[in-house]
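During the reporting period the student researcher (J.K.) took over the structure-prediction task from the postdoctoral fellow and processed the backlog of single-chain submissions. One of the processed entries is reproduced below for the supervisory committee.
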Amino acid sequence: MKEFFGWGGYQRPAEGYMSWQHLVFVSSLMALMILFAVLLGRRNRKMELAAKNKVLVVTAILIDSLELFKIVFLCFRAGDPWDWLYTLPLFLCSIQLIVIPLAAFSKGRLKEAALDFVFIFGILGAILGTYAAGNNYAAYPVLSFDNVVSGLTHALAGFASLYIVISGMESMKKKNIVITFAILLGFCIAATVANFTLDYNYMFLRRGDGTPYDILYNLVGGNQILYPLLVVLLFMIYICVFHLVYVFFKKKFGKNECEN
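J.K. obtained the following structure tokens:
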């Protein structure tokens, strides 16, 4: 247990990014994520919104409880009560720690926009934070506190994303894209301020750190103006493309056309 929690540093060497241990572990999480999303989403699809929402409430409590436990534990392990400054929810994946509760507990247009945000970015974050997390799996053993908690929180975000669309909670209204942009830009601004204040790399706005963002970072030669601007632009393009693809499939295979 001492080794699992990393007290005094991990003694086992990391199995490595894209090792079979890494792939088996994250694939198991993704399989469970999809299974529960399909089972619960199909079961609740014809229920009232309040009944559907209960699953999101439980998901919000679970994901935030896990993250809070992780933050407190890491502060104890580091012997530094200020270590939480480096675990703020200012990565693309960890935005879900705030937006999933927002989707679960808010009402009206804000709820619609939050649900859409989780739908759009939850599954992307789940994939990037598991299969593409070279920064974690190259540094820690696969079955370690750092990777297990990270894997669970990313899987919960992916579950919420799939559950929302399978249960029919998404709205994907064009008028709500502005709120989706605003949520994303707000976090990007907060991450930028935190990066300069703490000399950190929230939202990977300063460098790729072994993630797919390295492709973009290398493309612009590490330029500290172009790189973060292109990362944010990429997020915006992703939102627009996601909406277009959603509308296409909804019109082609759905019973009713999407709302405008």
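The committee noted the following: The chain is about 65% helix and 0% strand.
J.K. will present the remaining backlog at the next meeting.
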